[in-house]
Structures
1.
Amino acid sequence: MTSPGGPWAPHLLGLVAAGGAAGSVLRYAVGIWCAQRFGAELPWGTLAVNVAGSATIGLLGGLMIGGMSITNETRLLLITGVLGGFTTFSAFSLDVGLLAQRSAPTAFLYLMATLVLGLGAFALCFWLGRQV
């Protein structure tokens, strides 16, 4: 079912924004908690949100593929909003998982392209930023 106003309808944008704000605050809180609990030598908070977000989106994705009905509004609030604000790694995990359902080689290429291009872009721009 298409929402009145299409994908840019104000209420849909509001759901994504509210979920994103909640996910970002949650990510911040997990980061602080992990640093206080385990120290700041390693980015434990980032690891925690990536694993927790991937687990959560895996469960939701599996339930949806298994036939669980979820409204577009709920998907936008929870998956795009909360999990998107919490960690984009969860969206990446879902993309790879869904691609693997259709084609393992395509999923592998997407995974490798994301890692190589993402880390490569980071390295290049990190280097450029240090040159300024």
2.
Amino acid sequence: MVVEIFRTNVQEEADKNHIINGIQTQFPAYKINFDLEDCDKILRVEGDELKPENIVEYVTHLGYVCVPLE
């Protein structure tokens, strides 16, 4: 199981839900959650064979900032 954490610029609950729904449609096996209370608006994705670049590409395509945290 791989866990990746990303910094985003997502502010609204509706945007968060839209992104989660989209990622789950594209990658149904992934477990996804957001922490909008965190200053980095954390997106956490967990899954087997997770490729962080796919998440970054998808979220960026939706018009949001998404940067992997080290």
